[in-house]
Amino acid sequence: MNNDAVLDASTGWLILALFSVAWIWLGWWLGRRAKGLEGFMLAGRRVGLALGTATAMATWVTSNTTMAAPQLAFQMGLWGMVGYSLGSIGLMLFAPLAKRIRELMPNGFTSGEFIRLRYGKTAWRVFLGISLFYAFGWLVSLGMAGGVLINALTGIDYHVGMSVILAVCVAYTLLGGLRAVIGTDFIQAILILTGIVVIAVLAISNVGVDRMHEAVLEERPELLNLLFPAAIMFLFNNLLFGIGEIFHSNVWWSRAFAFREGVGFKAYMIAGLFWTPVPIVAGFVALTAPALNLNVPAADMVGPMVAAELLGVGGAVLVFIVVFSALASSLDSLLAATSDLVLTDIYKGHFKPQASEEQLARAARWVVLILGVATWALCWPRLTTLAELLYLTGAFVASTIWPVAAGLYWKRVNPNGATLAMLLGTVVGLSAYFMVGFYVAALVSAAVSMSLVLLTTWLAPREFEWATLNQGATR
Amino acid sequence: MTISAETLELLIVAATALAAVAPIILLILWVRDRSGGKLW
Asked: Is the pTM of this model over 0.80?
């Protein structure tokens, strides 16, 4: 039990039960029209602008955004929340890539498929290693965050909360595939945005920016310092980490394949625009803590504590709904996209190249289930080192930025150079992580990777036929 | 170098306004897509 919980366990159970039933029913209802493998994996490739924008936005709003944004504002002040909001740049930069991906690979399924067709099998295996490591790191960190946050907010045991949220997401992804994921993401996006706006408006009207500014200036003046060095470093690393995460991850590629023609660019651009204010709106409420004379025992609880102080039980319920929606919208997307990668690039690509569509459609559901169980097993011991894996992945994902972006636009990129860029970028980025600090890992990795892609392409350019991507991706 | 209360207020109010408008635009897009048969 957690005695510092802002809600009692029975209220927590009620919300958990209501939302669990709602998500699973919606998943079944939305997925009942999903036909065949493309219907299950890519929602029939006809997702419109409204659902496309909402799913891109909601997926990028994780439990970290809603809980860690106030924490970052509380620890790093202004630049903490503004730096976090720069995560939206990754979404906006992916907008032209999504358009290009849809044009080059109208029948494509995964990001791994692109790397295999563009650079060959060695690069593909290196990329799969990076991508799956990142996906598992994110899955485990989300699963653990689910258990930890439910425990912190309601006192419900970590293992129970973690198991419930994972089971719910696996269940509706299993029932409805990407249609269920995208449909629930739309409702989750509305809930997240409405919830944080209500809390923000109450914070502004009850406390006032002047009073908040005055109290912070008196107690924690460094939080309002525009030249806070640690926060500025965080800002740049976060920017590159976010770009690396989005450019390589099948979460975003699968949506580029699933969106209707002409939707990808607009959906990612609008999603980026809508995402930008989220860390600021969710984060600034933490700055009201000094004005409210709140004694915050742990920085990660500052958001729920301020909401509970301003709104009473209603505020705590609102935070719980926002956090639950944020967790579910990211977990389901990651489950679906990672299972696509495992199915297409591992199962079919390495073990069953002749598998029929029916066999793949059956296997797709098994993969979702196995991934869910594996994530649950890794989350069970609650090893914080596993959650910290996600920080490490900055070095991995940033090494893919240049091979992915250059591979989509430049005909002459050297495939061996791209492979080497991912390998050496990761190794040097990891060295920087351990020798200097987490805040330089993505930066160093991206710089090494960029240098290698540019140098090898300049020294030994290789011609590539864009049509290969379309032909090769056709089943 | 400290941010002034006015600039902080501008940042917070602008961010909150954009976040408040976002769900309305999403709903408008949803209605438009649905009536045009372009939801899925």
From this structure: yes
